[in-house]
Amino acid sequence: xxxxxxxxxxxxxxxxxxxxxxxxxxxxxxxxxxxxxxxxxxxxxxxxxxxxxxxxxxxxxxxxxxxxxxxxxxxxxxxxxxxxxxxxxxxxxxxxxxxxxxxxxxxxxxxxxxxxxxxxxxxxxxxxxxxxxxxxxxxxxxxxxxxxxxxxxxxxxxxxxxxxxxxxxxxxxxxxxxxxxxxxxxxxxxxxxxxxxxxxxxxxxxxxxxxxxxxxxxxxxxxxxxxxxxxxxxxxxxxxxxxxxxxxxxxxxxxxxxxxxxxxxxxxxxxxxxxxxxxxxxxxxxxxxxxxxxxxxxxxxxxxxxxxxxxxxxxxxxxxxxxxxxxxxxxxxxxxxxxxxxxxxxxxxxx
Length: 351
Ligand SMILES: C[S@@+](CC[C@H](N)C(=O)[O-])C[C@H]1O[C@@H](n2cnc3c(N)ncnc32)[C@H](O)[C@@H]1O
Known about the structure:
Elements: E1 2-4, E2 15-17, H1 23-36, H2 39-43, E3 48-49, H3 57-66, H4 73-91, E4 98-102, H5 111-119, E5 124-130, H6 133-146, E6 150-156, H7 159-167, H8 170-174, E7 181-185, H9 195-207, E8 215-221, H10 226-233, H11 239-255, E9 265-272, E10 287-294, E11 298-300, E12 305-307, E13 312-319, H12 323-333, E14 335-337, E15 341-342, E16 348-350
Parallel strand pairs: 2-6, 3-13, 4-5, 4-7, 5-6, 7-8
Antiparallel strand pairs: 1-14, 8-16, 9-10, 10-13, 11-12, 15-16
Helix pairs in contact: 3-11, 4-5, 9-12
The chain binds S-adenosylmethionine.
């Protein structure tokens, strides 16, 4: 957990559109910038397929299967960490706080913390932020039925939309402007990129933490056993591969052209350990990523796309920074680390 260094539409509607209705444009834009940009090939830069494409309605259904796979430890460990330390964390949250769960997903994970706040009768306003409207509709409705002391709303839009909405006074229109803001990043959303990128994402959130009472709490997986990590992302039934391929299919739908055909691409999980000199990485850590490899030349003239056989695109990189790496990220982002909690016998921690 950290704080910043020095430095509603009407509340009866459960979901606030802060930019979600422009989602198609957003997805098309990031595909153009990150996958279709012809200068990418020439530059030899890493091509990173955007993980936002993984959140189609069908993608979400597959993701829910992923989190229940026996060897996919990260979701359960993080939920257990919140169950184990929920009372301590909830005790730090003042009445009237606004909790913004960035990339809230199906809200299953945050429930142990909200349960402790409810038990303590601490009135707070929970906002789940996600680009998936169906996640928000199901998740916010279920939380609203469950709690009496916690008001629950959804923010439909992207991370950028949310920061813009806060900075332009959107949040102050729906809650008391003096409410402390707590940001929650569960599921290794933040802290989970190459060091410099991770710091740059954190810094953007630090900029909207304008009160000394504002906090950000990150769930990160610091596992250092490569076999355990590999097995968790490479299940025998191929559920994770299906999840990745669904992202590629969804990009066909967004772009309105079938540039991706399953038989043209191999999808495989890979573990790497970039050393201190790579990409501004000040210390090494294990990384799991999926690699999409073109098995033959792939081209889609309508979209101006052309990839030679053997071309590789990475997707869904998972950096396993430990406590030392997270402390360095906080320092570099202008945040002060105030505490951390571990799940007994696990490497998932919140800080
Ligand atoms: C790995 S899931 C984590 C979900 C949840 N926090 C958990 O730990 O179970 C990432 C979530 O972030 C959302 N997401 C991804 N990119 C986003 C973006 N740019 N803006 C808003 N939400 C995003 C996805 O829809 C998905 O629900």
